[in-house]
């Protein structure tokens, strides 16, 4: 039963660095540009103690609402008892990575624009748009052709040791 309730209590595995990922920070943290409205994921880096968010926000995705020279302001929704509230806090850029949550949406937008350009001469009813996300569809059927099948030796002729 834990008796410490400090800022980093119960973060032994949450803040642990990966295999061969220890040591100094790479330059990729400092070369990433963040703009207002970007989706970011809070990924706490335990190498840097400054500007570290609380462990509750680790793994959460939010939007950038403020950019400063060394940090970004992130807005995240958080459930507090029975209600959901918006939390705004500043995090140093070492603890933030760009999120890939909109990647699928942007790919669908490109696909829809491509289909619209190809089918612009067709009536509106025949233009198919992929608005919703689709689950993984079943693979198409195929026939497997087996050639040069080796005959199976009957068991009575097989010698046992």
Q: Specify the CATH class of the domain at 28-98.
A: Mainly Beta
Cα end-to-end separation: 60 Å
Radius of gyration: 27 Å
Counting helices, strands and paired strands, the structural category is alpha+beta
**DSSP E strands, number:** 5
CATH superfamily of the domain at 28-98: Ribosomal protein L21
Helical percent range? 10-25%
Shape: extended
Number of helices, where a helix is a run of at least 4 consecutive DSSP H or I residues: 2
GO molecular function, one term: structural constituent of ribosome
Family: Belongs to the eukaryotic ribosomal protein eL21 family.
Keywords: Ribonucleoprotein, Ribosomal protein
GO biological process, one term: translation
Describe the structure.
By secondary structure, the chain is an alpha+beta fold. Among the domains are: 28-98, Ribosomal protein L21 (SH3 type barrels, Roll), CATH 2.30.30; 100-131. Helices cover 12% and strands 21% of the residues. The chain is built from two helices and five strands. It has helices spanning 28-31, 103-118, and strands spanning 39-42, 61-67, 71-80, 83-92, 96-98. The protein has a five-stranded antiparallel beta sheet with strand order 4-3-2-1-5, with no helix packed on it. The protein is extended, with a radius of gyration of 27 Å. The mean pLDDT is 87.
What's the quick description here?
The protein is an alpha+beta fold and 161 residues long.
Topology:
Elements: H1 28-31, E1 39-42, E2 61-67, E3 71-80, E4 83-92, E5 96-98, H2 103-118
Antiparallel strand pairs: 1-2, 1-5, 2-3, 3-4
Family: Belongs to the eukaryotic ribosomal protein eL21 family.
GO cellular component, one term: ribonucleoprotein complex
Pfam families: Ribosomal_L21e
């Amino acid at each position: 039963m834990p008796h410490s309730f400090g800022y980093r209590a119960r973060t032994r595995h949450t803040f642990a660095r990966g295999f061969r990922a220890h040591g100094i920070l790479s330059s990729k943290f400092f070369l990433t540009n963040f703009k207002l409205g970007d989706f970011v994921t809070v990924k706490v880096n335990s190498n840097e103690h400054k500007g570290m968010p609380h462990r509750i926000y680790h793994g959460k995705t939010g939007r950038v609402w403020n950019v400063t020279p060394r940090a970004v302001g992130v807005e995240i929704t958080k459930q507090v008892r029975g209600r959901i509230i918006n939390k705004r806090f500043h995090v140093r850029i070492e603890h933030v990575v760009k999120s890939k949550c909109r990647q699928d949406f942007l790919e669908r937008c490109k696909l829809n624009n491509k289909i619209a350009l190809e089918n612009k001469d067709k009536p509106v009813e025949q233009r198919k748009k992929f608005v919703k996300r689709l689950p993984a569809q079943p693979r198409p059927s195929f026939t497997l052709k087996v050639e040069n099948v080796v005959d199976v030796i009957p068991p009575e002729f097989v010698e046992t040791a």
